Amino acid sequence: MLVSHIACSKTNDFWGDAYAEDAEISTRSQPVWVTVPFKVKYTGTFILQGPNPDRCPDAFNVVVDGIGQGTNVGHSTIHFDFYGLPAGDGTFDFLYGDPLPSDAYIVAANGDSLFVTISGRVIDGQLDYHPADVNSYWRDPFEILGGTGRFEGATGSGMSDDYNRDSYPNNSFHNWEGTITMIKGKRN
Fold it and tell me: Confidence band (pLDDT; 50, 70, 90) for 26?
């Protein structure tokens, strides 16, 4: 008979009226974090390549702006502003990012920004699967550092598969794949 009493009680909450209100508030105030695939593809243009003595006098400054699309960012833009140095090992390779200054972000279709960091080595040459006019490439880890709007507090990581080409006005190609952890359904 206890079962029928509970089923026929005036409250719809198993714990009774005293706890129902607290349980609803607690459930609603806790964000749900999800980890989902993150895959983006951008085509960029070199805006600046050269020394910038005001910010980092001993390094080479590279600025690239690009457009493309990806999961969780839709049609979007990407901006890279980083510094690098020759590898110093007899190659034409270029070391970029950490510990040198770098600034990278993606601006999603709705205007929210996703902050990222990447560092590694731009390698002179090409891999077998690259187009014939590729002159350099890099396959380096990236990290997601948060952002604005729906990307506030976001984290994640993955790998780049990027290269530069000779024959295009837009000559910097960026293909990133990994995961992103963010609040489920957060919209601004």
Answer: low
52 vs 142, residue with greater confidence: 142
**Paired tokens of 35:** 């980890």
Which residues, in sequence order, are bridge partners of residue 174? 42
How far is 134 from 130, CA to CA, in rounded Å? 6
Residue with tokens 């990407």: 78
Instruction: Encode 89-125: b = buried (16+ Cβ within 10 Å), e = exposed.
Output: eeeebbbbbeebebebbbbbeeebbbbbbbbbbbbee
CA neighbor of 66 nearest in space, from 37, 48, 95, 41: 41
What domains lie within the chain, and their CATH numbers? 1-29 (no CATH), 31-183 (2.40.160)
Q: What is the pTM of this model?
A: 0.81
Pick from 143, 153, 50: which is nearest to 105 by CA?
143
Beta carbons within 8 Å of 137's beta carbon, 6+ residues apart? 122, 123, 125, 126, 127, 130, 162, 163, 164
For 72-86, write each residue's pLDDT tens digit.
999 999 999 999 999
